[in-house]
Please model this.
Amino acid sequence: MKKRLAVGAVLFLVGAAAMGYWLTRPAPAPPGKVIRDLGKVEERLKAAVAGSARLSLRELGKARYGTWESPIWAVTCKPPGTPKRHLLLVGGTHGNEPAGPEMLLQFVEELGRGEAGDPEAVLDIVPVVNPWGWAHNRRGNGDGLDINRDFVAFKTQEGRLIRDFIGSTHYDLGADFHESRYADGFFLFQYSDPDQAFARSIIAAERGQGFPIEQNTWFLILKTHDGLILAPRWTLTCARIARLFSFGNYMGYGYAEHAFTVETPKRLPMKDRVSMHRTSLRMFLEKGLESSAH
Model:
């Protein structure tokens, strides 16, 4: 068993190092036209916050590329009473994955109307981590770097701003909402925690909505098992050594009690991908409510 783990760790490190080189090497972003309007994101966030005393909006800083710049916004929703939980929800780390940002924007709008949320939790929400990529429909940022492989080196402006925002906060749950161009169905990454019960309940909820569940996606040596990729602590350590650390790795390595990456298949219609993300978010919120009831 120990020999198999050692071989697995070596293979993971070699693969991670190779992937890390190609995904995090400095490269100018190719020219591209703006296809999404960040001004509308700002309008939606400001309108939602204006309607609720529980919501606040702040700029974490600006991402700048030449003459182009945009804030990275964070919304915080505070409960009416003493908070018992703290959740961090992010989307748009890869700019060509728009379903997560759209779901989080809709969620913030519902919070503004008093229609959603967890009455005992502080919610930190960053709908668009990668504003340049989102506006230009590119995976990477304006330097051509993959922000979601940068949570060790922090070469990217965006990664540093998210790191500074988190600071020393230890969240009860951290979730990053993504999309996969390889998958046929929904799946989750779960980090560090070997207990599958809660993740399985999320997958069951997605299946109950009639959505397909992924069976055959690989990430290096990790594979989906009926919609779930378990990333043990040792794989996070390997990814950290290889400097191939994602946001989910970062949260699972010590900044959240429970850390997930939610993946929906890009081949499905946008409305379905948004709905799948929302189902996962509902389960994250319900887990908090169930915990407070015991």
In short: The CA atoms of residues 26 and 145 lie 6 Å apart. The mean pLDDT is 90.
